[in-house]
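Quick start: what a row looks like.
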Amino acid sequence: MTAPESNLQRLKRFRNNLLKPHKLLLDSERIRYEQTNGPIKNKGEFFQLVISDDAFSWLRPISQFIVQIDEFTSAKEPPENPEETAAILLEKGRLMLKPNENSVTPLAAKYFEAIQADPNIALMNAEITKVFHP
């Protein structure tokens, strides 16, 4: 019998699983942006838009959360109770990635739309949420 997965292991798995839909969401928003504003010239311009343009602002909490996980998991001096911190971050991720058509937060509402519009994002969302039910 294998030992249950620790919160830290689950958090690392969650982070890795989150990268795929994050990229799909960025690509999808890029297509919408280019339909309205014309082509984005290069990766540098795209990066600047992602960090500063309102069209991409709803995705910033996911980007920032990935960075937060990376900082926690690669810290030279981990917090006093890394399992508890990992559990808190997992809960934050669970709450953040709750699609909700009627949400007042742009992330939840736009994430709901993306899941409805793209079956790949819906499948990835289902895969990501498995980490919350060990």
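That is the whole record. The chain has six helices and no strands. The longest helix spans residues 7-37.
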